[in-house]
Amino acid sequence: MSNNSLIASIAKIKGFDLNLLLNFEAIFIHKSVSKAAALLSVSPSAVSQSLSRLRSYFADPLFIREGKGLVATTVAENLHIHLSDGFSQLINSLDYFSDTSTKSKFVIHSTPYAAMRLLPDICAKILEDQLNCEISHINSDALIDSVEDVLIYRKADIIFDSKPYYNFSTVTEVYLTEYPVPVCRKEHPRLGTRLRAEDINHESFTFLNAGSEGVKRMQNGILDFFGHRDFFFSSSSIIANTSIIEKSNVVGFIPRWFAEKFSHSFNIKILECDFVPEPVPLYMTYNKSSLKNPSFVALLKIMNTLKELV
């Protein structure tokens, strides 16, 4: 059913108490008001009142007393036929979410770099602790995606981003800190082991397009120390910038963790530098309401355990 059709359907039944239909199904199955009341854990008078409202709404007695039980009218029979499948699906869905043995699915929203940096350890720990869940990762773009929209529209359960999002309904905390370092390809014809201020005028650089204040502060610090740089290539992807660096004489600043882990794969070397760029925090954000979910709390516990190790 499309959203427009669903909205139209809701508009048609607004003001109608859907709990009345639950009472109807209980009476239909047991052919008794008292047995329906026992099933629903309410008083027989409450069920009788619900039946009276249904009779008024459908302009039909719905059930006629015959002997010790109730017999459904033709209207009630047709109503049951139309309701039974929908009720069965609804109850099964509710059982699915209330069953603690059911596998939970959590969506993590982050850049490809953050996913590569964090998710392997998180997933390994989940499997080790046998947490019954499925993890789905969605790539985010550092310039386009809005943390606020992702959280408000529940597109993800957890967001890893260099941008914090503070709100009464969310929790945002620093998950790890990245330390940028200058790198170039190993066969760079001019740079040996150090990047000096006087080298800047002779080199071209990559630029990381990111909208977070942490990244901008780091970039402004580099600008204050080295002055103007000639930028040849820019991207919101650390991986793309590094790929350009290894195939050319371009220089760039990338996270130390990435440089150390992939220095051989990308044919790059870390340069010493008189200037130490400002560290960039990576934040974890989630909705406070998620803390009502025991499986989410278990996942969060695993992540907080690993936070001290990354």
Automatic annotation (TrEMBL):
Highest rank taxon of the organism: Bacteria
Domain HTH lysR-type residues, every copy: 16-73
Pfam family, one: LysR_substrate
InterPro entries on file: LysR-type_TF (IPR050389), LysR_HTH_N (IPR000847), LysR_subst-bd (IPR005119), WH-like_DNA-bd_sf (IPR036388), WH_DNA-bd_sf (IPR036390)
GO MF annotation list: DNA binding; DNA-binding transcription factor activity
PROSITE patterns linked: HTH_LYSR (PS50931)
Assigned keywords, A-Z: DNA-binding, Transcription, Transcription regulation
Family of this protein: Belongs to the LysR transcriptional regulatory family.
Entries under PANTHER family matching the protein: HTH-TYPE TRANSCRIPTIONAL REGULATOR LEUO-RELATED (PTHR30118), LYSR FAMILY TRANSCRIPTIONAL REGULATOR (PTHR30118:SF14)
Name of this chain's protein: LysR family transcriptional regulator
